[in-house]
Amino acid sequence: MNHEPILIGIDAGGTSTRALLTDDRGQCLGYGVGGRGNPISAGPDLAAEGVLGAVRAALAIAGRELSEVSHVVAAMAGMRASGDDAWLRDRLVAEGFTGVLSFEADLLATYFSGSAADFGYALVSGTGACVIRVRAGRIDGTGDGLGWLLGDRGSGFWIGHSIARAAVQDLDGTGPRTALTDRVLAHHGLARTVQRREGRPDELERLVGLLYASPPIELAGLAPLAFEESDAVASGILAEAGIHLADTLSAVLAGPGPLVVGGSVLSRTGPVREAFLARLGERAEGLELRPVGDGAVGAAMLAVRAAGGTPDAAILDRLTVSISAFR
Amino acid sequence: MNHEPILIGIDAGGTSTRALLTDDRGQCLGYGVGGRGNPISAGPDLAAEGVLGAVRAALAIAGRELSEVSHVVAAMAGMRASGDDAWLRDRLVAEGFTGVLSFEADLLATYFSGSAADFGYALVSGTGACVIRVRAGRIDGTGDGLGWLLGDRGSGFWIGHSIARAAVQDLDGTGPRTALTDRVLAHHGLARTVQRREGRPDELERLVGLLYASPPIELAGLAPLAFEESDAVASGILAEAGIHLADTLSAVLAGPGPLVVGGSVLSRTGPVREAFLARLGERAEGLELRPVGDGAVGAAMLAVRAAGGTPDAAILDRLTVSISAFR
């Protein structure tokens, strides 16, 4: 029997969950993926299933049991403040877990997926958009992350929403023509018509009906269309997204450091990134951009810390290299 | 028994419904108010109750029966295209109605509440925002009215949404300070605290939670706060609303004419109106602004037309004067 401490870092997201099984030196022993893991968006039962699914898969690959795990760190949005962890703790205990469960912010896991430095920044622009400043290994400043209705400026939702509005305003005559319109219509299975009602094309009424029939957050699904076009409207939306992300980062900037970048909007090179850097100007000096795919490695770094270890650059490197054998 | 044709014009809205009983010369015989009358937002049963309530009240004041009414015109948003009028027709018939029921757009009723001219414009900015161009007494151009998620730029929702975003960005540090923030906090029963979590004030988290707990459209309720403040952020929001409304109007402008104005945003003098006129510049020449309170008179004008009459300026004047005895 192996008595070295084994740890699990969980990156629980709104659409999927990743679990990384590691020893306390950052050697990845197993890795698993599960379903939706955020209890706020998915509900506690479904979220627990998503997390457990990822955990079971990681343990199975390693041939280990949950009873051997000393620390589980679950990184997810919005769970740190709630304090009520029974939805997950009870399920883990039922499967033999006797160790310590703790929660961390998803953005802190993103940060530690790309940096082991005590000071730096993480900026995520996926469906939502949020920035944190990390000091002494803890979050001490936050910008945006205010959700689709109140913030998330420069996020995938923000881009998709801007695309939808540009398309309906084009069809409506209150906005400029854009090639995005045909893409948005095609995305919704609609074609242009010559039918007009009270001066409006029929496809506008149909498109508006379809867009209101889905939850607003699904507008984020339109975001890729802006990256496939290069007319003035599409380019303008992407440039504005970059400017918003730069302004959000600027609100927490307090000196040079690593800037870990999560989410697909800013991770890729192109118009958003260019506008982002142009807007930052001199403030971009001393920021080292480090795109990361997800927060699994960072959650494992936080599990090492929870177990009393020091998640330094060597452990980050080891986790980053050793996880690659599993995914 | 009186054999002159009597008509009912109904202005059915999302929060209340007005019914105007008139003869074919525009003499108001009765007037009643009922509850929510739009079947799309209230559901058909509740909407029918709202409409019937207004109709019964108008008939009761005049001492008349529904069986005596030859034409009912119901003006409401979104009902012209649907064609399915059983939700209201069946209820009217059950109370003795044997005449002709027809539907018109709410904005056309707004227009005819302020003008009898064949050509002109109606611009409504209440919770939503929409403009129509009227030609030969029919709508032949429409701008915006695309709803809170996709349009309604310059509406009460748009203003309230801008206020909410300004407040959370102030608290978040990603936007400028504004006196609106204390008003928004007070509006939600919150006070400022010195508690910070990850660099954020506790009241931000509470405010965001409360704002997401209600349907987005309720943000329109914050709009009055901008009219009570005069700092740069509040003034900027109102000026931008005026610019949006001017741009929406510009999309359908095709020469001088009456501009009937509905909804509280542009009806009052002040920063929105000033920015609106400044943005229009020379294009405002030849536009006669005519604020109206609701669409009841216009719905009655449309009922006169439905009955084969000509709703001219004399009938508009008679309706406008004679209704005042009832409300």
TrEMBL record, chains A, B:
InterPro entries: ATPase_BadF, ATPase_NBD, Euk-type_GlcNAc_Kinase. This is BadF/BadG/BcrA/BcrD ATPase family protein. Residues 8-303 form the ATPase BadF/BadG/BcrA/BcrD type domain. It holds the Pfam family BcrAD_BadFG.
